[in-house]
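Journal club prep — side note

Before the paper discussion, L.F. wants everyone to see what a predicted structure for a comparable chain looks like in token form. Sequence:
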Amino acid sequence: MFIGRERELSSLNKLYMSDKFEFAVIYGRRRVGKTALISQFIKGKRAIYFMGVESNAKQNLENLSKNIVELETGIQTETSFLSFQAALEHVFLLAQRERLILVIDEYPYVARSFQSLASTLQLLIDKYKEDSKLMLILCGSSMSYMEDYVLSYKAPLYGRRTAQIKVFPFDFADACCYLKNFAAEDKALLYGIFGGTPQYLLQIDDRLSVEDNIKNTFLNTSSSLFEEPENLLKQEVREPALYNAVIIAIATGASRMAEISSKVGEDTSVCAGYLKNLITLGLIRKETPYGEQTSRKSIYSIDDNMFRFWYRFVPANNSVIARGGVDLAYKRIEPHLSDYMGKVFEEICKQYLWRLLLIGEAPVEFKELGRWWGNDSSARSQAEIDIMGEQDRDIALFGECKWTNEKADAGILETLVRRSQMFRYPKTHLYLFAKKGFTSGCEDRARELGNVTLVSYEEILEKLERK
């Protein structure tokens, strides 16, 4: 069953309907669903789908040749073109007579095996684009390769593409399509644990509880997820051990550059390089307090839920898991789940606010959302605001998110009111989000203030699932 990706499919179909030469680049992390997206798009269309393999040029040319001949004859054959240029030029010529799609999936494998592939494509595009009906799609999982050798202005193919699509993991709403048979709270937990990558969501068994799904995947040495983060790093980077150390440092509480450097035991200049690459891979996020540009306050966090969960809990319990102590490992993890879910709930609340903005129901038409942290001079202490966004200098939104088993009370709301006043916007709108709802005192105070919206997790889920 194919789920989501409506915008991506719409973009690809618009290109296809142009009936002229189009060149789309599709890229994103491994397991994120790029091939599934392409397969859905080319269904019922005349298309040559060729997946590159990590082999030599001869093997890749033979595979491409088979796909081309099979499209024309419907027969699989061992016939091979003499060169990549001959094979690709044949496709360009075919596309002069009819609309045709050529997909080169895992393009980096092919390009590495045949160094002149990009230049060959450049030559053929420039030669045939005016009278060709070819829709060329290059797809790749190596983020650094696609950005440096396909999308970069220094790349031979720069300026030829007519579209690029970066495929991201699903948001909470789309992830819930995989979680239909779970209770409302369990959907958030599973999203927080497995993230929005389709291949990881498919590992969830809806006949099992959340606890048993954790045991069956992250705490099971024979599960594909047990070593997934480390295996992915091995495919993407040259020194996975140091990258692992950086991610573990962040997962276990280090957020500032100096803290990460100290935990890893490397200079900040060395760690900065690793962090930059991890940001490119979509695994680490760099944040500064909302509205501030300085990097002095920058913090780093893990940007993918599955990686955040794995690095937070699996390495610390590896010895126990390896000896079959699954129940003991889970017993150590379970008390920390509520605290772990705090950041996940903040992200779900942001997605809810973006949903309101896009359907025209947001009281503040913010441009961006972020977190803020810094000094609260009135309280003479450090303070944090979970969500902040401004429409302009006159109106802003502030939000607080509480993933606890107690109802949010008036005291929590008063803290949010006080912190919002530090910024002196003429108008503000406050959002208080809570897993279990609100006390009557909190509801009374919200009505009295008049600029507060109280939103329970159940209401968030209902809005996002109704998209």
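L.F.'s comment for the group: The chain is about 45% helix and 15% strand. Keep this in mind when we get to the figures.
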